[in-house]
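To illustrate the input format used throughout this study, we show a single complete record. The first block contains the structure-token representation of the backbone; no residue identities are included at this stage. The design step must infer an amino acid for every position from geometry alone.
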């Protein structure tokens, strides 16, 4: 475990009820962070926290501005500061090319993956500016889709490309306040999302064929997030790509 952070730093983890968010939250708790667990449903958040004294579950839909404001107000009321935001909540969205997806499905994907990330980052930055010059750190969960799309994932891919712009803008604008922002792009963790795209049974490739793709344990991805979070204030990991060994990413197509 990294011990580069000060004991008791406060982290907000969105999408903490399952998958990567759950793994990151649990690893942070084990590493001494006080963790605000955010997600739409309280029961999974409580399961993530598993009764840990430093876990604080706050139900939140990141696409709803009032929910996000309430989330960060609760974090500040409980622990007085926000040192790290893991901007993780997201949905895969509709399967289809740009001419096949409905406007409603497009809007719903953008609302969670992009607008929700912006709302959480904005609330975190407001809190972190009051902590200047120490500031804080934001880690955005992108995807290898931010580099190279899968077939029929127009909505998801666009939001992940946009996440890169959000990340760079936050990093630039936060410099004067000690706020850093980096993006982790993860490919083929063994989570429910991989079941959605059929990685284990045969995911659609660019040429229309299907391929059973390798996956890797979600805890390994969580360790990469913890590394980014635990860097000293003098350093920032701006971009990190971690994938299952041998997955069709480099040379995709």
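Output of the design step:
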């Amino acid at each position: 475990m990294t011990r580069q952070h000060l004991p008791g730093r406060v982290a907000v983890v969105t999408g903490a009820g399952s998958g990567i968010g759950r793994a990151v939250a649990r690893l942070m708790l084990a590493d001494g962070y006080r963790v605000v667990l955010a997600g739409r449903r309280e029961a999974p958040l409580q399961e993530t926290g598993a009764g840990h004294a430093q876990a604080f579950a706050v139900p939140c839909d990141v696409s709803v501005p009032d929910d996000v404001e309430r989330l960060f107000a609760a974090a500040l009321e409980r622990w007085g500061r926000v040192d790290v935001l893991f901007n993780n909540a997201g949905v895969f969205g509709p399967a289809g090319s740009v001419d096949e997806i409905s406007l409603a499905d497009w809007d719903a994907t953008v609302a969670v993956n992009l607008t929700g990330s912006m709302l959480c980052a904005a609330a975190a930055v407001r809190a972190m500016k009051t902590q200047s010059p120490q500031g804080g750190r934001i880690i955005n969960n992108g995807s290898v889709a931010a580099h190279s799309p899968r077939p029929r994932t127009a909505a998801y891919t666009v939001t992940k490309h946009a996440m890169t712009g959000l990340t760079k803008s936050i990093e630039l604008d936060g410099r004067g306040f000690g706020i850093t922002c980096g993006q982790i792009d993860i490919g083929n963790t063994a989570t429910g999302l991989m079941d959605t795209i059929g990685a284990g049974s045969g995911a659609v490739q660019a040429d229309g064929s299907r391929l059973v793709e390798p996956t890797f344990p979600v805890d390994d991805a969580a360790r990469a997030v913890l590394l980014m979070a635990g860097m000293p204030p003098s350093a920032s990991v701006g971009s990190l790509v971690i994938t299952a060994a041998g997955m069709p990413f480099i040379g995709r197509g």
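Structural context for interpreting the output: Residues 10-242 form a domain with the Rossmann fold fold (CATH 3.40.50.720). The chain has one domain: 10-242.
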